[in-house]
Amino acid sequence: MKYMGSKARFAKDLLPIILKDRKENQAYLEPFAGGMNMIDKVDGLRTANDQHEELMAMWQALIHENWDPPQSVSEEEYKHIKYNQDQYPKHLVSYVGFNSFGGKWFAGYRRDKEGKRDYWGEHYRNITKQVPKLEGIILSCKSYTELVIPEKSIIYCDPPYESTTKYRDGFNHEQFWEWCRQQSKAGHQVFISEYNAPDDFKCVWEKPAKTTFSWHAKNLAPKVALERLFVFEG
Ligand SMILES: C[S@@+](CC[C@H](N)C(=O)[O-])C[C@H]1O[C@@H](n2cnc3c(N)ncnc32)[C@H](O)[C@@H]1O
Question: For burial by CB atoms within 10 Å, which of 83, 95, 147, 233 has the most?
Fold first, then answer.
């Protein structure tokens, strides 16, 4: 699924590192699963959490309730859903809201001036292709701070990055890094995607990556950032 901050293009690099020492039946957890673009490539016991209510309602309907989403939505319908969200089921609001410019929540109806691209068809195919890969997954919708985590889990964190486009709730980065320290000390294997981390975290992988302007302050041209993976060093 096209999603703001998707890690789809890095999954091939990151997952071999994250899963390297995974034991049989060891739980894998993503507290910030978003568009499921990493966890859809992990098998076995796995939990996807995200605090975005509509998003998780959509995954629930698609994966566990066989919901077949619409293959096209007109601009008029898009706008009506955007401004009257409480009149529609949450899973539909999410499906429509995320098929927006940059995969960003209701950021504008995607329209190809030349009429060549079928954005709704792409959205439908992207999402329905993921669904079989997510069979059996445990879904959870809460803040990462409230998660109850099985012993010795592998935890992959892809939080909202510091100084990038804000998600709809403010995010306390200091509290997040402290939570990662605590989970590592509790015996979990914790991996974090970010551009930078506090000094007691070690970078185990990095790669230059183009970021789109939607991630940065307005009027900045696309630029290259170093995408990194960190672990707590203690
Ligand atoms: C960078 S995105 C994850 C993208 C995902 N890895 C992918 O490849 O599609 C970050 C996610 O964190 C979620 N989020 C933000 N604050 C959160 C919190 N306190 N607890 C749980 N999820 C949160 C957002 O809703 C968003 O989906």
Answer: 95
